[in-house]
Amino acid sequence: MPPPPKKWKGQCEFSAGCNNKLIGARNFASDTWGPPVDDYGHGTHTASTAAGNFVPGGNVFGMANGTAVGMAPRAHLAMYKVCSDEGCYEADILAAMDAAIEDGVHVMSLSLGGGSIDFFDDIIAIGAFAAIQKGIFVSCSAGNSGPFDGSLSNEAPWILTVGASTIDRRIVATAVLGNKDEYTGESVFQPSDFPYEDMPLIDAGGNVTAGLCEPGSLDNIDVKGKIVLCQSGGWTDPIDKGQTVKDAGGAAMILMNKERDAYTTIADPHVLPATEVSYGAGVKIRVYISSTSTPRAAIKFRGTVIGFPSALTVASFSSRGPSLASPGILKPDIVGPGVNILAAWPESVDNYPNENATFNMISGTSMSCPHLSGIAALLKSAHPDWSPAAIKSAIMTTASQLDSAGGPIEDERHVTADIFALGAGHVNPSSANDPGLVYDLQPEDYIPYLCGLGYTDDEIETIVQKSVSCSNITSVPEAQLNYPSFSVELGGSTKTYTRTVTNVGEANSTYSVEIIRAKGVDVGVEPCTLSFSKVNQKMTYEIRFRKSSTPVVNGTFVQGAIVWRSAKRAVRSPISVKLVR
């Protein structure tokens, strides 16, 4: 690693000092004294995902073994601790963001957030606006409150809001029933000494508490030497459910998903032989148990399997749009890997005291966010003149809507994911490096948008930290912001907006528009061809939305897209339309 940049002004609060990878470490958690030690692993995991160096032998319990590396392995890291046992205080978060700006970071990655809130009350939105004013890119988690609509965090348009997808690697543990039916599940704990043989199978769901395998709930149930079917949910996490089964003498556990989690399964470091299966599989296992007086099952541990055809599904927990804080901005912006992600951990989850390879595998939009942060760092390095908005545009307009098998990306139900789950699509880093066109924005461009939201001058000043008078500014509707996507509420009258694109490809290039129609909506674009003669040339187009004659139920959301195509590139902008009377 090279030394820190000459302009770096950060501090290291570890007595042993930092190094050329970790060039800054500061503690802003106001109720925790001392150096910024990671007590939980979350910060270590996310930081190494964004910018961890090459480390051979990365694995958990021997699974997913290989060379671990972050998205931007040659990037420097600075870490700012803002959370403690008591939570994450707003003042601490904002103080850390301000310090990072002053220290000279280029990208901020925040794997935290709350519910939807007005931007002038949103500490992360306020800190992020200060960051983009200095050219700093900000990436944030979309939240883990999915699959419910309107469940997003971090909705401000100057933030990249990142949802979570699965990957094509699974740590497979298959439940094999006595009737020979098999159900693929996952567990990162894969014991080599667990016998592959039929054992008695029992459904713990005789009552609600027992079915959830809460601590002590199995004490009066004979589970000794049996495989126990437990349900996800309640107040107990999956690993502690396994501990409940183990404490009661159970031999193994099959953990069935909640209905809302459907096919999103998690590979946990269980304390006993176990597999987590989909909700549908759990229902079928439960039917089998009730169909025979002697239900039996086995668990076949198959280890690490790469190349699952249904990869790139949106995770059940990934928060969904539409944005409540600003419905005229389509959110989330993008999805990236966030399920069963292997990355660094402060200590060995194996509990081996001499273990040097400390890694863990966890899931969440906290994991997808640093993937995008690291990719943004790569783009910033390759294109130092690009603004944060240009980097975001490049990521969004080049995103993929297809899974690894070439079909449309699905959600946790194995149904085609809608625009509020997927945003612009799944990140495609190599394409983002050469997007052709970008939708650019400068910090001052957000002020007419904020006036258009109906915020007062004082509320906007809280965000932008300078004097504002909306009475002297021509406000714009949300959908008029020069954003790489469209979110429109459409009634009886035609809605017309403009967008300006900047040519970052070849000097001489021509793009023609393709309209992917949304049901019940007619879309027109003028001009339909954009011809550029130089790099960084800007051109503006107009887009019109009006209801077609196709009858659609009031309040329905429909989706489509426009794609500007050249001989080499496709620049796609997703469209969401809410149809109202």
Descriptive terms for the model:
seven-stranded mixed beta sheet; 12 helices; five-stranded mixed beta sheet; 581 residues
**What percentage of amino acids are in beta strands?**
25-35%
Major sheet summary line: 7 strands, mixed
Low-confidence regions = none
Principal-axes geometry comes out as globular
Number of helices: 12
| Overall pLDDT score | 95
Classification by helices and strands: alpha/beta
CA-CA gap between termini = 60 Å
CA radius of gyration is 25 Å
What is the share of helical residues?
Answer: 10-25%
Quick gist of this model?
The chain has helices at 42-51, 90-103, 123-133, 208-211, 238-247, 279-291, 365-382, 388-397, 419-422, 429-432, 446-452, 457-464; strands at 22-27, 55-60, 63-68, 77-81, 83-84, 87-88, 107-110, 137-141, 160-165, 169-177, 182-186, 199-203, 227-231, 252-256, 274-277, 296-306, 334-337, 341-344, 359-362, 437-438, 486-490, 495-503, 509-516, 521-526, 529-532, 538-547, 557-565, 570-579.
Descriptive notes:
The protein is of the alpha/beta class. Helices cover 19% and strands 28% of the residues. The chain has helices at residues 42-51, 90-103, 123-133, 208-211, 238-247, 279-291, 365-382, 388-397, 419-422, 429-432, 446-452, 457-464; strands at residues 22-27, 55-60, 63-68, 77-81, 83-84, 87-88, 107-110, 137-141, 160-165, 169-177, 182-186, 199-203, 227-231, 252-256, 274-277, 296-306, 334-337, 341-344, 359-362, 437-438, 486-490, 495-503, 509-516, 521-526, 529-532, 538-547, 557-565, 570-579. A seven-stranded mixed sheet has the order 11-10-16-12-13-14-15, sandwiched between helices. Strands 21-28-27-23-25 form a five-stranded mixed sheet, with no helix packed on it. The longest helix is centred in the middle third of the chain and has 18 residues, at 365-382. The protein is globular, with a radius of gyration of 25 Å.
